[in-house]
Design goal:
homotetramer; alpha+beta; Chorismate synthase, AroC fold; 5-stranded antiparallel β-sheet; 18 strands; Chorismate_synthase_CS (chains A, B, C, D); flavoprotein (chains A, B, C, D); FAD (chains A, B, C, D); NADP (chains A, B, C, D)
Chain lengths: 368, 368, 368, 368
């Protein structure tokens, strides 16, 4: 289902080419001031048409707030937002109705929904559905910021080019938020430039590339989360794998940890100004599902955009016949650029949910 | 929390050195015959003391079935199982009470539970809690097998040694189940032998190693799962990250997909005996959160065992003082060997849960 | 929260005087044909301004379908509906901002939302929020009808006047649906006439009345539901108590059962045309939380409308001062008339949810 | 399912004549001291064989704590309790295997579980399963008491005899807890005596009686709960309808409210010592799903015990033949006496769950 959350629930709806898309957010504490400008800026980072590395589809994607807000402050009751679809070229998708685009959910969606799904533009499976996710995550981000928690991300790898990594121990708010402020979210501008060249090269050869987004969190209080199935890792994973094209997720050293010895991987505890910290942070700020107070660090792997203009072999699943397919329409040669705020949004929602469990709604709402 | 599941729920309880550990499983369809011998054999694969690569702690780990079964058939009402703890050396853990073992949840658990947690042997955070998970997953495995679905896993990497991978397209039941049948679960016996040597070398140097478990599934029907937050990947992730020491998870090509171009990664559809299949399986059998009918493939990264006998620097969090710590007790130099059935169990539970959502309890129960 | 459901989830949003209200419905099976005319007719039964027994506020309440439907058939992905608020007199509510209307949630909502709630017209607590509930329930009703399950209700009591009850054994579809087809939903037209007179009398004396809605279900398959906390009674109760003004709920004989002896209350089983039935139906079609195949019967008690034009003593909770209050605005002297379809909607959602659990989505969707 | 709760989850297992019954409680805050004597006394109130008004089956019902407690303090991780079944006469139930006991879930359970359910003594549907519910509720009660919240109940009606009601405005802790302290839980001892006589008369005529339990709560903070589906009423209803034999539930005036006019039912607000209170309390302390700070009051209707020794007509559902049945075994002629602590337990769990949502686990746990 498209519903997620324990104490902070979201329910996302919409299809790429239907009347609109949106989200209902239930459980936001009351009295949270919303900085609409900041929210719009955050959503703009995901919006298409911002950079030539992205799809030329242009949409305002300005969400209409239908409930849950008075003035610029949350009421505490469900907050609903609607984004109208107004720039759709459905005819581009005519032939997709029964020819499965490789790498897409056309065929699996056909089976899952017994042939009734809206397949235009990917329907409910479209990357466009990340717009309401980013909206919801933008609110969670502002909620976290009021608690001194900051969430940022950057492109760690793209098309074989690596950015500089976040420093797992010394990561600060300024460094964390810097990539998001630039048009191409990397720490190292030169690496970003090379990525853009590679993306452009992929586009020129009617192909696409994937990449890895690294997300960091500073200021998250230690001691939040739970063991087993309700740990921060489970909670983050349950939402991050809801982002289209994500095929992998790792925390701290992740897969690299599997290559280390315990003596290399264990983070020694020490005191810094009377506070317990760790000298290294291979664990990515989470031990036993619970935050340690160190920066939280994770990486999500994105497969290359499935929609490519190259001719591909496929099957028409209604006619049960093999055929060749050329995917038309406008598509990003690389979704990773726009995926950066989506990962930030997903992680922010997961952490806000966990914080609500720890502090309750009373602990997070602002008294009038 | 230690509760998981939608249509098939599990609630795990217990501490490493308390009276016992166990699980309540709610939502199992009625009329499922339980092969107790097979279940015991599956649990034995996780049990300690089986191989010198594992901790010398020996336990029978024979679960007592408290409810939900008559004869050897499920009743459909909650099935509870209890495993008594009977071989505990609590005194080994005396000094841990306030010295945080690096890489463990001692300190985060101390904060989370305000100092009241049972820290002996890791308490509720202990790897021992995977025994009831394997028990529950063993039942899910048998449920799936009745539907023609088979789940198997092997050590894909350990201590820098790689096993042969599962063939993502041609994987069959026989190959899938072979590693689980051997004492050291690899496809390539020679690779297994080298891993054992490396593990032994780590033990000799009072150190530990990590590794990667690859899990495969054949026979899972196409069209099961849901988009966004209830996809097979989310559901599997939400339980796999509940296994202690897991720091990464990837499906299909996973992180390697991020390095490919779309034309390389997209799996072309074709017909085989009139059935829609894909020529390659970079997607790992899941598109848009929904099964494609191809083998499901995933890999989980395990960090090296945190408990090592080497002296380590740490902090006594009650006394707020730095100190040196030598972890006593009996510990696996490598948890990955015993983690193989745990991953199978977690994946089996996730898939059984998804199948129950698709077919309902009526569709999965056996009429008497 | 305003989110409900296991296999069929609804998330309701909106405030009485905000931009709009609506619902996201997640889990509807694909391929359900929607009879929009029937849905509109069902919603019209709840709409204000239909009868002089109701509030003069007139709204079209025509929901816009934002997603989840193509043509007139569900896609299986989340279905969202938006109802714009277009006839609001917010100024009527000016003085309510801090004077607690007796019988309303003004004061408790003020505390719950730390003063940030939208209090105009009751905000999210308004009876107007039952419009999206009725919309969602109307879809569930159509889903159930395709399975041969029919849900109907009538005013069992109002202002001291009793309608004829549903026959718990012989209730048929025709009788069940008759009250809903009339402007004033009773079985006995004369009783209905007397109720209208009493309601009118209450209005004339600037007062209000309450009542009881009886709901019946025929055709629901036997054997659906679960023991303990997931029984049909729990599931129905969890949503019916979400209808504003409901203060009581009973199944079968309900409170009257408490006065009977076992020999009077037990329903003897017998065979009718080879089928197991009960001779009487004191149980209201539910035994141990599970349907027996007999008609399901329940009654919900509604308190009298809290908004009355009579001067009332109250407290200004911001100024912490006692005062007198005259509630302005347009209010039903009796909500029970319009509550009849709301109860039908809530019960339909609960039963559709239970049926999805039993049959799975595959068992309820229509193959294209 | 037999799993319940949001922030405080319980998972109940067991069958009347299986090895044992029990519960896993997940989400209890850490550092809650458990008064075992008080807990035992509370459980003793539900235990059979205490009064001749109850079944002669005698069990110690002493729960073994398997996890979640060290010494007498909760650890915050799942707390599991096991109660062994040790006094069972399964042979008494031999003939029930296929003859549906009227008023019982034998037949519906047979359908639900496809014939595989454990029917001995009602299996999982047995009233015996309320023992773990009372255990869990006893812990919730102690948690609430630490917050100044007290929950008590009494038999409001039984066999046509009425007890004095709780005073909805002036109810205090002392009055509230008095009935529970006596062997026969009424406020008015004379009424209790008459109830006992009626119960005894019912037993003598091999029959049974039902009744109504009234439950009150004092000290619950105002402003806790949520609108729509997560209100205190929904939450309480979702668990109270899990108590076997409950067929009705009402809050405040409940069904009687349906007979009142708004001017009679509305509770005027006023100030008492600077605090907002209501003059009357027809609402039962809940407005819009949220606590008002006044005593919370509710009543649950219990049908008469279904197991009666009188011959009854029924159907053998395996042989599909009508027959006469004489229910053997030991049965309460009135479950209401023992149901009093069960209602207290259910209400305590619901309120503790709501309080955890408001205050978070940090707000409710005791710092060591």
């Amino acid at each position: 289902m498209s519903t997620w959350g324990n104490d902070l629930k979201i329910s996302i709806f919409g299809e790429s080419h239907g009347p609109g898309i949106g989200v209902v957010i239930d459980g936001l504490p009351a009295g949270l001031p919303i900085d609409r400008e900041e929210l719009a800026a955050f959503m703009a980072r995901r919006a298409p048409g911002r950079d030539k590395a992205s799809t030329p589809r242009r949409e305002t994607d300005r969400p209409e707030l239908l409930s849950g807000v008075r003035g610029d402050v949350t009421t505490g009751t469900p907050l609903a937002a609607l984004i109208r679809n107004n720039d759709t070229h459905s005819s581009d998708y005519g032939e997709l109705a029964s020819a499965a685009r490789p790498g897409h959910a056309d065929y699996t969606g056909f089976l899952r929904y017994a042939g009734w799904g809206d397949v235009r533009g990917g329907g409910h499976f479209s990357g466009r559905l990340t717009a309401p996710l980013v909206f919801a995550g933008g609110l969670a981000k502002q909620l976290l910021a009021r608690e001194g928690v900051y969430v940022g991300a950057h492109i760690a790898r793209c098309a074989g080019v690596a950015d500089a990594p976040f420093d797992p121990v010394r990561l600060d708010r300024e460094t964390l938020l810097r990539p998001g402020a630039s048009a191409f979210p990397t720490l190292d501008a030169a690496a970003g430039e090379r990525m853009r060249e590679e993306i452009e090269a992929a586009r020129m050869s009617t192909d696409s590339v994937g990449g890895v987004v690294e997300c960091g969190v500073v200021g998250f209080p230690a001691g939040v989360g739970s063991p087993m199935f309700d740990g921060l890792e489970n909670r983050i994973a349950s939402i991050v794998f809801g982002i289209p094209a994500v095929k992998g997720l790792e925390f701290g050293d992740g897969f690299a940890a599997a290559e280390l010895r315990g003596s290399e991987h264990n983070d020694p505890f020490r005191l810094a100004d009377g506070k317990v910290v760790t000298e290294t942070n291979h664990a990515g700020g989470i031990l036993g599902g619970i935050s340690s107070g160190m920066p939280i660090l994770l990486r999500a792997a994105f497969k290359p955009t499935a929609s490519i203009a190259k001719p591909q072999r496929t099957v028409d699943f209604r006619e049960n016949a093999e055929r060749e397919l050329v995917v038309k329409g406008r598509h990003d040669p690389c979704v990773v650029v726009r995926a950066v705020p989506v990962v930030e949004a997903a992680v922010s929602l997961a952490l806000a949910d966990a914080l609500l469990g720890a502090k309750g709604y009373e602990g997070l709402q602002n008294r009038k």
